[in-house]
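In practice, a research group might receive sequence data for several interacting partners and want a quick structural hypothesis before committing to experiments. The following worked case mirrors that situation: the sequences arrive first, and a predicted assembly follows.
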Amino acid sequence: MPEVSKMKKPDVKLVLLGDMNVGKTSLLHRYTERKFKDTISTVGGAFFLKQWGPYNISIWDTAGREQFHGLGSMYCRGAAAVILTYDVTNWQSLAELEERFLSLTDTANHNCIYALVGNKADLTDPKAQLPQDSDPSKDQTECGVERTDTQVLSACPTPPASPASLSGITLQKQVTPEDAMALYGRILRYKGLDEKSSLPAEKMCFETSAKTGYNVDDLFEALFDLVLPSILRNRNESQQSPTVDLEECRGAGNKRAKSGCC
Amino acid sequence: MERDNHQVGETEGVKICDPPCESNPPADTLATSLSLLGNHMFPDPVERNYRSTVKEEPEDSLSDITAEEESLDGDPHPHQVTKLETEETESSGCQNNVSTQQLDIENEDAATDNDRSDSGEFVVTMLAKAKLEEQGIGVKGRSSPLLEAETQEPPAFMSHRDEDVTADSWRQHRKHVFVLSEAGKPIYSRYGSEEALSSTMGVMMALVSFVQSGDNIIRSIYSDGHTVVFLQKGPLVLVCVSSSRQTEQQLRGELLYVYYQIISMLTQASISRIFEHKKNYDLRRLLAGSEKILDGLLNLVDSDPSFLLAAVHCLPIASSLRDALSQILQKAITPNLVFSILIANNQLLTIVQEKTVIEDSRLEPADVHLLLNLIGASSAFQAGEIWTPICLPLFNPDCYFYAYISYLDPPECTVCLLLLSTDKEAFYAVAECKRKIEEAMMAQNSLSLIAKVQSYSVSQVGVSDLRHFMYKPFDVPDNYRQLTQFTSPEMEAPYSSEEEKMRLLDLYRYMHSRIHSSSRPLKLIYHVAERETLLAWVTSKFELYTCFSPLVTKACAITAITKLLRWIKKEEDRLFIRNPPKYSTTPNPSKSSRGGKSDQQDSTDNGFLSLL
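A structural hypothesis for the assembly, expressed as tokens:
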């Protein structure tokens, strides 16, 4: 069996949040499997353990559907980083982050870091259309061919999950990086964090394309680097008190709120 | 006399051609609705003669009709076959001459006798009107009548969601399913987008509410090639338009599965709450992304006899292996864990359940079907461990369980572990159970043993001429309160192609409908079909459907069945999950509101949690 099956305590927790169809699962899949493939709407949340150097990083890929809203705060409990994902071609997906998802992060760590990620950049940005995958063995050729075709036709292929895929034309970018950075500022204010002492917006706002791989590795690697202090702190704590694992479990159990659904 | 009408109506429909003279304003509405719906769903030549049958008795009184029971020696209705054929010739005759449409509306709960005759007359009135109205309403895209039973599948490359709902191919789907809210808002359509169908669904709602305004409930409409079945469940209305030859009863059962699948995602309590709060709520907001789960369910309903039989098909494995697997599951427990289910290739390997929770109730087959469908439809990204709320509607329609779903054999992803907990926060504890199970299975080399497991071939039974069968034992005191199961071999030649499989299933569905007919149930049917002979037999102990090569005589078939039953008895331990073990997971004291037997009543609906 792969090493995952050996019980390993995750060192740190990352959560992907965002409206449905923005490409959370695709982003993660691109990063872990180096591929872009059709995904179907996530049910509930999916838990992954990513080995990063000597560390185990747990990643929760959550469902964006309103149906599963009630579970959001459970996934976020104790998170060290939250990736708030939106679709650059869909203004509403950015608005939803503020309306629906931000409050879910209340259960995250107090020193949790927030990243804003605009996915599907390949639809609006020519530079995101080039295949980015650093591992050229697998799908670069396939991807490259596809891209050449589409550039000739000056039409952009879109991820199948997007409703815009029917139109088959270059899509209007609806969310600019400035919009995202403004939202980042509001998030810090919501969290009561000082803008000066927090990570700067330029560093925490990304535009990615799960389809071409554009910026995806940069995003995850940057976040892993940033949560490293948390990892080390966790490791220290668990060395000092080996019971932390159980404690955490019990704590979670007690906090079980009688939250109404939907 | 009404009853006579009904009986004849079953086969041919009754001509009632009193031309109405009084004008009835509501009748106009319904007539328009009917003709609109008719035009959209089944276009016909302009000339239409409506023949209508109105069933006026409440359904219960139908049972007055003497139920015929046939013994082994009795004449097992050979004329039934002929009758079917007659029907076919008749309808093809209609195709050439005047196409007729027989509408058959059953009304439930007629208030008084007077009302009944009124409503009967009224329906005739409006149907006759429908014919007139129709000529006034121009509808695009009228085409050849849809009389063929066999229909073409649309090109596979096109998503059903994007289908053009005005195209002929859309009309030719064998079975449409629509879900709408009481306010007439579209919620789901199997083919085509809900938006494009909003007017059609509006017409359906008009029909429902019109009949409702007369204190009746619309149950079904019969036309030449189609059966339209309505099912109203709380604030949801489900409609099936089918050109398969399934009975209304079967179609309604399928709609119920659709309803349950929606409940499994949202719970009944929250659906009622939502619609109490806001009548015209667009439920698609909550179901968005779940269409594929419903699509998958409907495909399974069409292709998997488990749904027809309301029983679960488990994978045949040596009882020693099954027991070993059960014990592994039994040992890996954590507080609030209630079910541990092991699945291979979407079939059950074993199921272990918590003692106190299931003391009085067993897991219903339909709940298992919904779980299996959820896993099948949501396994695109199989590497992760999934944690999701799910409601088991027959167990408790108002509360959620939390399901942990993980494949044990990545990247093949055939063996799936499903653990159900009542605790929303229990993910890490439940995931730990999985590790224990994984370790134990590795130690016993279970995965490679499971990988060798296959469904069995009918040739193993050693009965010549037997092509296929489905055997469903009923609860006997021994295994009382166990999951209802059935066993069935692989479908082999000549039933290897999809079309042939479907044809055999259709034959089984026909046999099933005869056995379970509400008006005249049969105990034994010997049915000579065109290319095979079927025998269905129901006793107090089992229900059995068998398929033989065409030239088998009744006597031969019965001898063969005796052999088959003997074989099943011998193989029982391999074919079925027998005596599954249970475990006890001490309930978390913080919420031990489960007092014992009275649990079922005080189930609160605070969304998540509190299963009992």
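Before designing any experiment, note the following. Chain B has a mean pLDDT of 75. Residues 173 and 584 of chain B are 49 Å apart (CA to CA).
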